[in-house]
Design brief:
alpha/beta; five-stranded mixed sheet
Length: 279
């Protein structure tokens, strides 16, 4: 039997975000030919330790753990591997392969482009700036990944420009990003949150991108979801290097895994776009 897939989330205090995570795991469970479980490392149920315990109780000896995060910051580099080590230490003999974050996968870029389409007509693209808003991190590598996504999103899509901002921990913040777009001469701006699910930080992005002054118009985009069956090809073996991981218990020490963990996504990203006309 193939290794079960364990989808690992950070956790959120937002009930809608927790519900979306659960729906995502359920869709994966119904569409992938492997056993699928999911859990959070903090803030919300179900806890990761409980998901690991359930897999161990069913006799599983090796798990493919994939972090459901967009960039490799502290959560992906330390928090999730640490939580996995603590959980697996309770089950001697159980080991895991650890996948990498989503990164700027072409299908993720396509999802972002769909959010832009929800608020922007094709003829308006050339005169529009997109402000891609990430979470923000004290890890410069994580912030750089958001800039990379912005560049890849701009390439070949007919947009006037794609700028970057962050909602916490890093600069530029959303107001500074909007001001940069205005100074570059754009009269229309699409504010595009770079988050997978609803939550406190996406709400903060929406608040920061609000009208704020006379003459500014905000239009919230739709929250369309791509059908999971359309994303099955993301499990292609062409990307094994992005999903080689580590992790073995009970010691919890990291060791390279030679077996690739296939990307399991269907994405159900809650990436709403807001179109603004600066006053």
């Amino acid at each position: 039997m193939s290794e079960p897939l364990l989808v690992v989330g950070h956790g959120t205090r937002d009930d809608a975000g927790v519900a979306e995570f659960g729906k995502f795991v359920a869709r994966l469970r119904g569409r992938l030919p492997v056993e699928v479980a999911g859990g959070f490392i903090e803030l919300s149920p179900p806890p990761l330790a409980e998901a690991v315990a359930e897999l161990a109780a069913r006799g599983r000896r090796r798990i493919a753990a994939v972090p459901l995060i967009l960039v490799s910051a502290g959560h992906g580099k330390g928090d999730i591997p640490g939580a996995m080590a603590r959980a697996l230490a309770r089950h001697p003999g159980l080991s895991y392969a650890y996948g990498r974050p989503l990164g700027p996968h072409p299908i993720l870029l396509s999802l972002l482009d769909e959010r832009i389409d929800a608020v922007l007509r094709p003829a308006e693209r050339a005169g529009t700036a997109v402000l891609l808003v990430g979470r923000g991190s004290t890890d410069p590598d994580a912030n750089a990944e958001v800039y990379k996504v912005a560049r890849l999103l701009w390439e070949g899509r007919g947009l006037g420009g794609v700028e970057t901002a962050f909602v916490s921990l890093a600069r530029p913040d959303v107001p500074a990003g909007l001001e940069r777009c205005r100074r570059l001469g754009f009269r229309r701006i699409v504010v595009l949150p770079y988050f997978l699910f609803p939550g406190v930080l996406p709400d903060r992005v929406a608040a920061a991108a609000g009208p704020g002054r006379p003459g500014r118009r905000a239009v919230r985009g739709s929250n369309r979801r791509r059908h999971p069956d359309e994303l099955r090809h993301l499990r292609s073996p062409r990307r094994p290097a992005r999903f080689r991981g580590q992790g073995r218990c009970p010691a919890g020490a990291a060791s390279p895994s030679r077996r690739p963990v296939p990307p399991p996504w269907p994405l159900s990203a809650s990436m709403n776009a807001e179109a603004l006309n600066p006053g």
